[in-house]
Structure formats: structure tokens, C-alpha cells
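stage 2 :: seqdesign
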């Protein structure tokens, strides 16, 4: 398994990015691909190689801690890679851990693909096992795990990209339409639009 890859982001889509290393492009699935800065000459992405039957994929994260939480979520019955990425996409893993520790099912079921049964399973399987992975106190500092995105893209295009990323994570048009008006009032990068939308959905 690859611990991490270091290279330049040459392409970004709604759920993947392409990292070029010595003329080889690695396709990496991410919870929020726009968090990685395409203007940087070189970035480090911590990776997890997922192998199942006829599927082999690389998943990428801005920190080892987010990757660790992803790995733990995969151990929960009913949660696959797509569901685990949706949980991580808001960029606040401590909120997820707090909800698990407090057995807050109402918070957990807000994530796409997580129903009451899966939320209960998350609590049963993970309660008391996650603090060593993330460890930071709850609060806005959680967003510090994410890197700033400085793509030179129009705000209109950035919003379109963010909405596509939300759809890729499994959010419905109804859920997206509730937060879209508030997002349209802002002038943000695609990464920031995604994070703001997810934070609004989780409140």
C-alpha cells in the first residue's frame, strides 16, 4: 500500500483528481478534490488503496488522520468508500467523533447513505475508538486539516463545480437546493463552497 504520493495536481473533477509524478498520472478519489491546490508545484496526498473483487482504487486525503478515520468507517457494516468520503467531506472529523461518542444519531443520519441502522452501527462499532486517530479538540480548528484552494476560476464556475461535487457525494437535488441560495450570495472557491454547503446541511 502507498503511504503517500507527492506530485503536481494537473486535473480536478467532481470526485477525483489526477496527480502527476514523473510523467505518470495517478487517478485519486477524494472527499473534496478542490481542497488540493493546483497552483502548488508539489503537494503530498496520503493514500489508501481499496481493493475489492474487480475494483482497485486509490483514495486520497490531506492528512493521515483523515485517512485513519476513513479506514475506521470502512469497518462499519453498511458503509463503503463513497459513504465514508461523504462523512469526511465537511472537513470536520471531530464533529463526527463527537456525534459517535454522544450517540447522536440525528447528526449522523444527515450524511447521504447513512440511515438510522447504519448510524447505530457506527456508534456500536466506533464509540471509544476514534480519539487517538484525530485527537484535536472540537471546533473550527478541524478545518485546518484542509488546505486552502487558490484556483483561478470564476466564482460561477466554482459554484457549479461545488454543486457537482455535492451530487457525487450522494446529496439529493432537494438538499442542494436548500443551501444553493445562500451559496450564491458568496464569492468563494469551489473548496470553500463545498465546505460551507456541507456545514449548512449538518446544522
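stage 2 :: out
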Amino acid at each position: 500500500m502507498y503511504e503517500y504520493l507527492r506530485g503536481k495536481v494537473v486535473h480536478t473533477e467532481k470526485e477525483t483528481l489526477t496527480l502527476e509524478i514523473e510523467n505518470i498520472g495517478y487517478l485519486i478519489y477524494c472527499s473534496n478534490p478542490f481542497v488540493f491546490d493546483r497552483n502548488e508545484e508539489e503537494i503530498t496526498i496520503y493514500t489508501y488503496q481499496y481493493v475489492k473483487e474487480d475494483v482497485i482504487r486509490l483514495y486520497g486525503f490531506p492528512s493521515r488522520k483523515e485517512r485513519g478515520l476513513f479506514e475506521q468507517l470502512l469497518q462499519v457494516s453498511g458503509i463503503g468508500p463513497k459513504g465514508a468520503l461523504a462523512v469526511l467531506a465537511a472537513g470536520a472529523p471531530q464533529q463526527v467523533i463527537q456525534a459517535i461518542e454522544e450517540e447522536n444519531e440525528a447528526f449522523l443520519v444527515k450524511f447521504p447513505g447513512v440511515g438510522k441502522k447504519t448510524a447505530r452501527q457506527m456508534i456500536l462499532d466506533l464509540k471509544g475508538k476514534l480519539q487517538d486517530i484525530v485527537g484535536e479538540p472540537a471546533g473550527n480548528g478541524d478545518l485546518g486539516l484542509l488546505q486552502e484552494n487558490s484556483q483561478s476560476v470564476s466564482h460561477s464556475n466554482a459554484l457549479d463545480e461545488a454543486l457537482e461535487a455535492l451530487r457525487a457525494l450522494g446529496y439529493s437535488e432537494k438538499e442542494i437546493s436548500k443551501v444553493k441560495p445562500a451559496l450564491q450570495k458568496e464569492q468563494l472557491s469551489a473548496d470553500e463552497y463545498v465546505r460551507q454547503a456541507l456545514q449548512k446541511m449538518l446544522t
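stage 3 :: structure notes
- The domain at 4-61 is CATH 2.40.50.140 (OB fold (Dihydrolipoamide Acetyltransferase, E2P)).
- Confidence is low (pLDDT under 50) at residues 136-153.
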